[in-house]
Amino acid sequence: MERIDAVVIGAGVIGLAVGRALAREGLETIILERADAFGTATSSRNSEVIHAGLYYPSGSLKARLCVAGRERLYAYCAERGIAHRRCGKLLVASGDAQRARLVQIHAQAQRNGVDDLQWLDAAQLYALEPHLRANAALRSPSTGIVDSHALMLALLGDFEAAGGALALRSPVETIDAGGAAHRLQVGGDVPMTLEARIAVNAAGLWAPGLAQRTAGLAPEHVPRARYAKGNYFSLAARVPFTQLIYPTPEAAGLGVHLTLDLAGQARFGPDVQWIDPATPDAIDYRVDAGRAAAFEAAIRSYWPGLPEQALQPAYSGVRPKLEAADGSMLVDFVVQGPAEHGIGGLLNLYGIESPGLTACLAIADEVVSRLAT
Ligand SMILES: Cc1cc2nc3c(=O)[nH]c(=O)nc-3n(C[C@H](O)[C@H](O)[C@H](O)COP(=O)(O)OP(=O)(O)OC[C@H]3O[C@@H](n4cnc5c(N)ncnc54)[C@H](O)[C@@H]3O)c2cc1C
Description:
binds flavin-adenine dinucleotide, nine-stranded mixed beta sheet, 22 strands
């Protein structure tokens, strides 16, 4: 039986950031990852946008950790030479109803401490982006893009430099929580039992499932996982835009937006497709080419010049949504530690959807502080 200070389950961007923070606290830390590489799930299936923090409800973890995490992330990228660009984004509106929604978003952004948004009227927008069709826009200069793989590589490098170890092909099957140490059964090539004073469940889409397999954790603390797939299409043509373009947000997602990668290649998405896989391991990430028509219609609402037949299925990711016991959808990140469930040294992270990538460093700080209390 191995004994260690801290175990983190899952080597996505969140598990890597949390492992790094714990190791830098001087704790002997292992990250256990069931796949044969880090960052193969949601952390490599997203828009790679550094969000400014406009939309999230006041006082929510998303609002606080996105705004704090964004600045931490820009500083970290600069310090570690991680490719990124503060390219800005335009949030566009057509018609009075969408403009009214932008007014609400502007007010919410200010409440969240995002005070650099700029209003553009139709003439200013035309001068900036003549190919866009909209009569008003909000420009967010602090939105950007980041190379998520390079970010994870840097986090892993820091983690290992602080003495941490990443164990791949190491699925955690069960946790026996409580007592002086938590006991984890780990399967894979070399099954083993680990004892750790601290256990952090950063298993992403699979976190609620692992929590259900955690003896000692009362079932009322485990939210139900719901999955909202987001599909992306890429464009086999040049786009006339240099910043990100977002329509007014829709339910469960931010609308079919245009993001750019660091090479300037455009992609559109993600849409919202609720899925119900038989098991979380049966998620089908393939993109149905038949969804292109709906994408074209959504994109043409703000970019009428989208060339015909230019969209190609690209990739997809799945948002880890959560349902409460009463059937309502939870809209915030859930960081559940000893103060919530009463078990010392155990911390579960649920529903870490967007803006989790942006907020990863701030989420890691939050985890460390919740474990200390
Ligand atoms: C479509 C989409 C677009 C997004 N766009 C953005 C964006 O532009 N900007 C932004 O800030 N955020 C964005 N996000 C959110 C961001 O991608 C996530 O918040 C983040 O990647 C979550 O990371 P994670 O480490 O929690 O999860 P994951 O990356 O899924 O990592 C979890 C890891 O746990 C492992 N695991 C699971 N079970 C076990 C087990 N029992 N034992 C061992 N290992 C296990 C998995 O193999 C996986 O590697 C987006 C998300 C989606 C779905």
